[in-house]
Structure of Amino acid ABC transporter ATP-binding protein:
Amino acid sequence: MKLTQIDKVYGKKHVLKNVTLEFPAGKITVMVGPSGSGKSTILRSLNLLVTPESGQYDFNGHQIDFSQKLSSKEKLAIRRETGMVFQDYNLFPHKTVLNNVIEGPTQVLKMGRKQASELARELLAKVGMADYGDVYPNELSGGQAQRVAIARALAMKPQYLLLDEPTSALDPELELSVLKVLLQLAHEKQSMVLITHNMAFAKQIADKIVFIEEGQVIYDGGPEEFFSADNPNGRIKNFIASMT
Ligand code: ADP
Ligand code: MG
């Protein structure tokens, strides 16, 4: 998928300035940059939670022009293919873990409950949460809740998984349990776009790094060059140093 020359304005604030970025299928694109630089706005544009004022979006050859009104059919189709995982999990608190995971497949994909439950159990096993189907979210640690949120997103079988600082709320040992799941998904070639402040993990998992500053793409390339001591961009070097 690809965004071309997108602009987003909130009030008087020009939040995204002529952003052009490609997010290759089967790869892990990691977005980094200072707080408030526009990373979440880009991620939300991919999922159409945010609508840029102008620019184009190419999703598997389907072209969207943001200056035209989007149809709800278009929105739904793209939302299905871009599963979102948020920093604060956003699980349904009154539903068990299993019911959280089957919600999308049963309600949106109209899958039968039995089939959806089988799928959910498979996914919960994959994220190391097989024994927690009957538990409510408030009984889970943050790391466990986030793994359930990942299983829930995967239950819709999205082409892309979009993750907005999925481990920022977690202690290091709980963070590790989530990072392991992401590495496993990367190994399986799940397409992902990940925002993180964990530079060591970004270096480990990224096929491609994007550095955003003040709504602009400052770097778009391989992780080796980005993290190299020879990176000619002093601001990027300072940023990495400040984060590690
Ligand atoms: P990041 O994820 O890199 O921290 P964001 O994309 O969340 O940055 O935000 C970029 C800028 O847009 C920030 O200045 C933020 O305050 C502003 N912003 C984000 N969402 C909104 C909104 N819904 N209304 C007004 N301003 C917003
Ligand atoms: Mg953000």
User: Anything to note?
Assistant: The longest helix spans residues 172-187. DSSP finds nine helices and ten strands in the chain.
